[in-house]
Design brief:
Blueprint: E1 5-10, H1 21-28, E2 32-35, H2 41-44, E3 52-55, E4 58-59, E5 62-63, H3 67-79, E6 83-88, H4 98-107, E7 112-115, H5 120-127, E8 141-145, H6 158-164, E9 167-171, H7 177-186, E10 194-199, E11 207-212, H8 216-223, E12 229-233, H9 240-243, E13 255-261, H10 267-274, E14 278-289, H11 294-301, E15 308-311, H12 314-326, E16 338-341, H13 344-351, H14 366-374, E17 382-388, H15 393-401, E18 405-416, H16 424-430, E19 435-438, H17 441-451, E20 460-463, H18 466-473, E21 478-481, H19 487-502
Parallel strand pairs: 1-6, 1-7, 2-3, 2-6, 8-9, 13-14, 13-19, 15-16, 15-17, 17-18, 19-20, 20-21
Antiparallel strand pairs: 4-5, 9-12, 10-11, 10-12, 14-18
Helix pairs in contact: 3-4, 10-19, 12-13, 14-15, 17-18
Length: about 500
């Protein structure tokens, strides 16, 4: 058997937007993912369904697996011929013990690559408005581990650190904060030197305490800072309030769960992130083409008989045109047929196929689509609707009442999914998710299926339309509906919900 390969990949400080393009590419191709507890949930959500997962997470005093054993896991998996991604929070070579892992791989002739990650000593201060260098305040940056082995003294020359007059960043140092501040004071640092503790930087849990070396310990106790957090010491800390850009974004401090079909990237998530939200993007449903597409193929053979072709989802578009090609047909076979779409997302999917939509309802739901199309009919028209196996039956009924002959053809089914890596139910119980965004009734059902909660009254639901809201209402969620069934209106709704809850 051929030897596998290991990639040491830095996952960054938390915000998935800081995960590198190369890291994402490597992660998607992994056979095995060996991951740490500090890897952000947004990154974990991108792990392929086919990858085998090995949790080796380490926190202070809680080690799932000792480092020596982790090294052996990487070696064993690679020797068995697997593509192994060692996924680490931050950067693998900055206090990530990546060098130790490579030593064993090198000794055994295992090929490897290192994918650097955005490191927290720079990114977290940046998200808090603290430039770690500034020519008016300092000319150097020093990154120090605040962790020490049990029973041993700190291997830190505090006197030398003070003499540098540079910015000091301590990682893994919250438990040792009193000792670190005392060491700096004994080394000759002015007790009035500005200092800060930055909690969960680049995520919705981001919190900042700015004080001085002499007062920082007391301030941290007062404000209940928790790990993970970093310590920054230096005059640059005085710039935090002036330069704190991230917390001024409209959705900063909010963690939003976006549900979506597995196969489709989420423009909703992208826009929410630009607004400052930490977005947990988890597929709750998966669309699967039916094994028997003969009814659709039969309709395609008679496509010239139809006056209207109606699409109710982007997935319906993708399945239809994939099957059209498999039947050795292309868009020329559609002739003069008119096309109706349930909304802008479906219309965009059609545009990508080179087709423009003739009709889109003002309200993007099945009933409105049926009523809008019925108003265009004269009676006797033949209509083809290729869509989900369990679609809105009102659409068909409305069109038939208008005198149309309707072929309602199931082309795909919806399968509910749950994440192995992220336990959404636990996140809901802890209250760490501020809002859940639903773009269809099926995503509501998929969310419920994946969480398995007994009580959904604590879930704040932002819903794209009436049918989606009705599904969320049926489970007792606190529901809100967008003014229009568009992604932009849905994001505006989330902003309004946050503003309302903060009043």
């Amino acid at each position: 058997m051929n030897k596998g390969k290991v990639w040491l990949v830095g996952a960054g400080p938390g915000d998935i937007g800081l995960f590198t393009l190369k890291g994402m590419e490597v992660l998607r191709q992994a056979d095995v993912v060996v991951y740490d507890s500090l890897v952000g949930q947004g990154v974990l959500a991108k792990v392929s369904d086919t990858a085998r997962l090995i949790n080796v997470g380490k926190r202070a005093d809680r080690h799932t697996m000792p480092q020596e054993q982790i090294n052996q896991v990487l070696l064993k998996e690679a020797q068995e011929g697997h593509r192994v991604v060692r996924l680490k929070g931050g950067d693998p070579f900055l206090f990530g013990r990546g060098g130790e892992e490579l030593e064993l791989l090198t000794q055994n002739g295992i090929p490897y690559e290192v994918v650097p990650g955005v490191t927290s000593p720079i990114a977290v201060p940046a998200y808090n408005g603290i430039p770690v260098t500034h020519r008016d305040f300092c000319s150097s940056l020093h990154i120090i581990t605040g962790h020490r082995r049990a029973g041993q003294e700190y291997d830190i020359d505090f006197n030398a650190l003070v003499r540098t007059k540079g910015t000091l960043v301590f990682l893994m140092g919250i438990a040792a904060l009193p000792d670190l501040m005392k060491g700096l004071l004994k080394g000759g640092m002015d007790p009035d030197m500005p200092a800060a503790v930055l909690q969960q930087g680049t995520t919705a849990g981001q919190k900042r305490v700015v004080a001085t070396v002499g007062t920082l310990e007391d301030e941290v106790k007062k404000q209940g800072i928790e790990t993970p957090a970093i310590i920054v010491v230096g005059k640059v800390c005085t710039l935090a309030d002036e330069f704190a850009w991230y917390e001024r974004l409209p959705l900063a401090g909010w963690k939003v769960l976006v549900t979506r079909p597995k196969e489709r990237s989420s423009r909703t998530a992208d826009i929410l992130r630009r607004k400052g939200a930490e977005v947990l993007e988890l597929p709750s449903i998966k669309t699967v083409p039916l094994e028997n597409e003969n009814p659709l193929h039969s309709a395609m053979d008679r496509i010239g008989e139809y006056q209207w072709l109606v699409f109710t989802s982007p997935t319906g578009v993708e399945v239809f045109f994939r099957e059209l090609l498999l039947q050795h047909k292309d868009i020329r076979s559609l002739g003069s047929i008119k096309i109706a779409s349930i909304g802008q997302g479906t219309a965009k999917a059609l545009e990508e196929k080179g087709l423009l939509t003739d009709l889109i309802p003002e309200v993007y739901d099945g009933d409105s689509l049926g009523e809008a199309l019925a108003a265009e009919l004269k009676g006797g028209e033949k209509i083809l609707i290729p869509r989900a196996e369990k679609g809105n039956k009102n659409l068909t009924a409305i069109l038939r009442e208008a005198g149309a002959s309707v072929d309602d053809v199931a082309t795909y089914e919806t399968v509910y999914q749950k994440s192995e890596l992220i336990h959404v139910g636990d996140e809901i119980r802890k209250g760490s998710i501020n809002c859940v965004v639903f773009t269809s009734a099926s995503t509501v059902k998929g969310f419920v299926n994946s969480t398995g909660l007994e009580d959904y009254s604590g879930v704040t639901a932002a819903c794209i339309g009436k049918q989606t809201k009705a599904a969320a209402d049926s489970y007792g969620m606190k529901t809100y509906m967008a003014e229009k069934a568009t992604i932009e209106a849905l994001v505006s709704l989330v902003e309004n919900i946050k503003a309302t809850e903060q009043e």
